Known about the structure:
Two copies of one chain form a homodimer. The first copy, chain A, has 489 residues and is of the alpha+beta class. Chain A has three domains: 26-275, Bira Bifunctional Protein, Domain 2 (BirA Bifunctional Protein, domain 2); 294-396, Rossmann fold; 416-486, C-terminal domain of ProRS (Translation Initiation Factor IF3, 2-Layer Sandwich). Chain A has helices at residues 6-18, 42-62, 75-81, 85-88, 114-124, 171-192, 238-242, 267-275, 307-310, 316-328, 339-351, 390-414, 422-430, 445-455, and strands at 29-31, 38-40, 65-66, 72-74, 93-97, 101-109, 133-142, 156-166, 198-201, 213-220, 226-236, 247-248, 254-255, 258-265, 294-299, 331-336, 356-362, 368-374, 380-382, 416-418, 436-441, 458-462, 481-486. In chain A, the strands form six sheets. A seven-stranded mixed sheet of chain A has the order 3-7-8-14-11-10-9, with helices on both faces. In chain A, strands 16-15-17-18-19 form a five-stranded mixed sheet, sandwiched between helices. At the A-B interface, strand 2, helix 2, strand 3, strand 4 and strand 5 of A face strand 2, helix 2, strand 3, strand 4 and strand 5 of B.
Amino acid sequence: MGLETKNQIKTKKKYSEKRSSYDPISLLAIASPVKGCSVMTPLGTQFWEEVKEKIDTEHKRIGVKNVMLPLFIPMSVSKKVFTRRDFNKEFVVIKELPRRKKLSDFLVIRPTSEVLFSFVFSKLIHSYRDLPCLLNQWCNVVRWEKSNKVLLRANEFWWQEGHGVYDDQKKKEERELFAKIASMYRKILSDSFALSVKEGWKTKLETFSGAKKTYTFESLLPDGQTLQLATIHFLSSKFTSVYKTVFRDRHNNLRIPAQISWGLSTRLLGAMAKIHFTQKDRLVTPPFVSPTQLLILVISTDCDTKEKENEKGKCYFLSRKFFSLKELFRVQINHVKNLEHLLILKKRGLAEGVPVIFECRETKNECFESYITISSSGLKKSILPSQLTSLLIRKTILQIQQRLKIKQENVTKLNTHNFSSVDDLKKLLDENKVGFFKGVFCGKITCERSIRDAFGLASVLTSGKSFKSLFCFFCGSSPAKVSFFGRKY
Amino acid sequence: MGLETKNQIKTKKKYSEKRSSYDPISLLAIASPVKGCSVMTPLGTQFWEEVKEKIDTEHKRIGVKNVMLPLFIPMSVSKKVFTRRDFNKEFVVIKELPRRKKLSDFLVIRPTSEVLFSFVFSKLIHSYRDLPCLLNQWCNVVRWEKSNKVLLRANEFWWQEGHGVYDDQKKKEERELFAKIASMYRKILSDSFALSVKEGWKTKLETFSGAKKTYTFESLLPDGQTLQLATIHFLSSKFTSVYKTVFRDRHNNLRIPAQISWGLSTRLLGAMAKIHFTQKDRLVTPPFVSPTQLLILVISTDCDTKEKENEKGKCYFLSRKFFSLKELFRVQINHVKNLEHLLILKKRGLAEGVPVIFECRETKNECFESYITISSSGLKKSILPSQLTSLLIRKTILQIQQRLKIKQENVTKLNTHNFSSVDDLKKLLDENKVGFFKGVFCGKITCERSIRDAFGLASVLTSGKSFKSLFCFFCGSSPAKVSFFGRKY
Lengths: 489, 489
């Protein structure tokens, strides 16, 4: 348990013995009656809609347009491109249609939609003027895995699947597009979700079977396993050639464009819940993406739920204040009749990870007694209602977000272990270290397999650049590159 | 061809002989390689996102929260509620999972999600305080039909599926909820999409197999067939009892809540394309929902695509104007180098149904030559650039929207035929009338089947209220209600 001190492990053990059933993910998604499939709760869906809005906005800037593609792909077409046995094993297949119509060409439920995007491109693209053509879809995909975990390893999940085709002779365009997409993911994962991610290239063995090169964003789970959160694939012309997607270039020659794809899934929400978890019975959510940033709970016999009535009531000034806060933040206001009801709503707010909770109670002498609670730390402080300003809320939200971010960066730093030789690595593993193991590696498939067998570690990502001056820690060959190993989720 | 005059039919025939391949739907969706499944183009997707935004906004007001539910439903559970043979015939079923795992309980790909919503409700609802609980999902559903038509009759389509549970003893709450949902659909169909819809209750024979009562919104296609665009179902406790969704009422008794559901699908976009079609090679789109309301095309050697450069250029004042229009409308601005390119973009704008197109060309003496084109009517008018004001655009958009609406209302009025006896109806059909046939009908299943056999007409909707003073035109029995018959798409 490398991500915690020994003392913490002890606490955690006791804790998990006491209430082993608590899982912060359960507030975002619930297992459905079908194995590996889940229901996204209203709260989980709100988070996903936040992700959607952020990515759609970035996509608009990059020039990506949304499309909606069908669920089924003919097996004959799918087989042309997916040749690796293990990926095909996850396909859910329809062999017979209603009214007992046996299919000669089975239908695969999309595990990913490269093939269909190529079909769309072949309809939309004619000349070099139509390039680059950048599309995206928000959809459900199905990959039947052996073991499942809600949101983290699901048989059906939701994702965003971006695909672009471009003239592969335009290397600058390719680089710029890649940089924009990578920057978008960096913003979402690191800035919005306050996660600490390492990014880099996959080795040959770990590259997506349809891709020439795969770029990945990886985070650490509390148990030290690495979790992939987003990827960008350079697909070359593997898929575009299947559907004969061609364009006429400036010299009127027919050419096949190159394809790039990028994706991020609802797994991100699982990562958020697991990674920011603080061993209290509650979600911890980064305020930048929390559907409710500020929960206001007011007890007052005069303050009814109807805002209009408040205008004449004693807490008129409070209502006005709340209204102005609503313009600036995602605020939920609840007027309650008594303390009991307030405490129920506060408990729910804390459980759902609302970052800031303001509670206010009118006392007999027409004064107010009020408190602000920071959900992630549990800190509760008495403040005057007049102190509840947009400045305070903005400052508090920023602080919480930064603290979560810094905490995760420290965890990753503490759990990134350098090694320069086989002995080094052995020693680290003997010390029960987990996390990222950083060393120099040649990237060869045979070497990677041997490392996996010897240490139980997989290559997570590499810097991508090989240097002649670097030598593989395992086989001693050169050139080699800086690489990170770990136990993959 | 009741929706057109004879002259129009002649024109249409000639027209369809000449370019029979043109279908305005093709700009919104393309048939995919799998029968009855389609790809929604970027334009089609933009329209659907417009629908989503409008419905999400209304839902928020009503108190409906979004969720995301899984694709697969266990057959055993589905069978408990869907007993009618014909609906089951449309189920696409998974009988075997990857790694040759035969399923004893098959999986149905959701044709609708009543069952799963009940499952969710059973997790979210405990006491009367949790009611009403109103949820919605945006998803794809699969119903395998014998014959297909892109967007109008698809094997896979996208829809919005709302579900609510409530205490069925609270009749006022039920009525209010129903009224709000019906008003939402009325706004979308009639105000936003400028369609003329008739609404009312389905007869027993036509009610959704899982529902106690079904409310429907129906429009007329240009060939006189009626097309269902949205429905609201009162499901009673049929589904909630399957998943044992219970709540404790104020007296601490366990009770089963009633369920209501409502849905609207991508078929709406097909209806828009077909119904507003004007026999030109273009889409006609109601400006209130057009993704681009105003297309601006400017030729000027000085006006580069980069807006910053314009600030110093001759068309600075134009750029400023365009910018202010962008704040108020959905505007797309294209700076082009020559007339040829302008005409290509204009043609595309017209084809895609952009309601208003403004083109502007700088002449030698630093003056501008500019035109405004109304896409639906083809009207092109010379105007001064200074006349391109937000007032003009607002007025024009309103006019186009109103004209489309009034036109459709007139078409529906002209194609609604009253009849009071069997002979009346026979006469109307002998005259080749199509559309809605309005008469008094008892609503009995046997009577409805006989009418279908005798006249080839189905009951489309009824007023819902029976009166003792009314007598069925077919069987003469009383009570009866005002009903509309037609040929269903």
